[in-house]
Amino acid sequence: MKVFTGEDTTLIVEGPAEVKIVDGFFSIFGLDASPGFECKVNAFKAAPFYTVEGGSLVVSGGKVSCINGNSIPKSWVDALNKIKEKSGSVIVLGEVDTGKSGFITFLANSLLKGGKRVALIDADTGQSDIGPPTTIGLGLMSKPVVMLSEVPLYDAVFIGLTSPSGLLHRSVAATSFLCRKAKNELNADYVLINTTGWVGDPGGRDLKLSKILAVSPEYIVSIGNLEHITRFVERIYRVIKVDPAHALRPRSREERRSIRTNQYARYFQGAEVETIQVEKIGVAYSFLWTGKRLQSAEIERLCKEIGLEILWAEEALDALILVVNTPLSPKVKESIEESYAKTVKIITPEELKNVLVAFGGSGKMFLGLGIILDFDPSTGELKVYTNVKAEDVEFMQVGYIKINPETFEEQGWIERWSL
Ligand SMILES: Nc1ncnc2c1ncn2[C@@H]1O[C@H](COP(=O)(O)OP(=O)(O)OP(=O)(O)O)[C@@H](O)[C@H]1O
Ligand SMILES: [Mg+2]
């Protein structure tokens, strides 16, 4: 479809679409595009093509609408000008669907145009643009982009869930860890930090305040009115208030879930079944695989005591971990807990199926995600569907969500620390 536009207008292209500029000059989130420029707009996302003098585009797929003037609010340009005065980190806060990703795209493209090294941290684990869902990603801008997902991933930290709820400390630690990486390893002039839209409730407030303190940003950008947070932090940091992007179509819960399914599917493209020896790697966020294997004599004694076959047994400082085919009765469990004076974790191999994990090694916190297919207690081998080569894996973090390895749909959360 060829679309013509007059002076001082914005064409809003909703994805999934491919766009080619035929005639005229356009600005897309601060990216300057001339005739011949081509780009993609992802599904459930939109991109504004603003032109001063008019022009034409060819759009394949998606939907196009037109608005008068520039959809980038003047307050965004004013914020950019302030931020240009001092390099450092910038945290962007806003409710869901207020234009956080759009603002960051605009800011990143504009700073890059000014010759700055711009790193991005995407701490929005549910609707992440950089890195797959369940992670906080770090990327370095190498060229201006229309979609933040074009920014290559440099490293990431796995949080284990798509929501930081109950894992606030991990999100805060990950953000400050990646912020240091951006400055030390990438020598970034600017580190732009996107956040979740969770800004209310004790959890959302705590998360935002802790992140701010952990990063000590040069600037905090508040999209819309977040006085319940900014009235406090503006006494300590520079806060810039900007307007939400107007006329945004909110994304439903279902759409957000479907965005994530697409992201997992894209992320697992080319994945294969790899075999990991669990005893050769470091493991975090589970009890399982973090202890010392019990001697066979002790396992035999325990088998007799509980009257069940034990497939795998290990002991850690704070837990005895048993892999069995059928769960123990609470009474039997209690009696072993008493004799070992520690928690007993009972896990069936079935429970491990389709659990999402993340691998790291070679100086990277994040080499990629994996989906557990099978654990063989007789060999200690874990079969995982992943893009990461088994020989590169130095450590693994266990997640709290299950993903179907065929459809990449989320199959629900598992209780934290249940494994
Ligand atoms: N200034 C703008 N003009 C036109 N479209 C915009 C603008 N800013 C953002 N958009 C588009 O509006 C939609 C919602 O904005 P965006 O994704 O930036 O919001 P968000 O606050 O990051 O949402 P989420 O909470 O889901 O992460 C996106 O498709 C985005 O591309
Ligand atoms: Mg966003």
Blueprint of the fold:
Elements: E1 2-5, E2 9-23, E3 26-28, E4 31-33, E5 38-41, E6 46-51, E7 55-68, H1 74-83, E8 88-94, H2 100-113, E9 118-122, E10 135-140, E11 153-158, H3 168-184, E12 190-194, H4 201-215, E13 219-223, H5 227-233, E14 238-242, H6 253-267, E15 272-277, E16 282-284, E17 292-293, H7 296-306, E18 310-316, E19 319-324, H8 330-340, E20 343-347, H9 349-352, E21 355-361, E22 364-376, E23 381-386, E24 395-403, E25 410-413
Helix pairs in contact: 3-4
The structure holds adenosine-5'-triphosphate and magnesium ion.
What would you say about this model in short?
The protein is an alpha+beta fold.
What keyword list fits this structure?
419 residues; alpha+beta; Jelly Rolls; 3 domains; 7-stranded mixed β-sheet; 25% helix; elongated; binds adenosine-5'-triphosphate; binds magnesium ion
Structural account:
The protein is an alpha+beta fold. The protein folds into three domains: 2-68, Sandwich (Jelly Rolls); 74-266, 3-Layer(aba) Sandwich (Rossmann fold), CATH 3.40.50; 271-419, no CATH class. The chain is 25% helix and 37% strand. The protein has helices at residues 74-83, 100-113, 168-184, 201-215, 227-233, 253-267, 296-306, 330-340, 349-352, and strands at residues 2-5, 9-23, 26-28, 31-33, 38-41, 46-51, 55-68, 88-94, 118-122, 135-140, 153-158, 190-194, 219-223, 238-242, 272-277, 282-284, 292-293, 310-316, 319-324, 343-347, 355-361, 364-376, 381-386, 395-403, 410-413. The chain has a seven-stranded mixed β-sheet with strand order 11-10-9-12-8-13-14, with helices on both faces. A hairpin with a 2-residue loop joins strand 3 and strand 4 (31-33). Helix 3 runs parallel beside helix 4 (201-215). The longest helix is centred in the middle third of the chain and has 17 residues, at 168-184. It is elongated, with a radius of gyration of 24 Å. The chain starts with a strand and ends in a 6-residue tail after the last strand. It binds adenosine-5'-triphosphate (ATP) and magnesium ion.
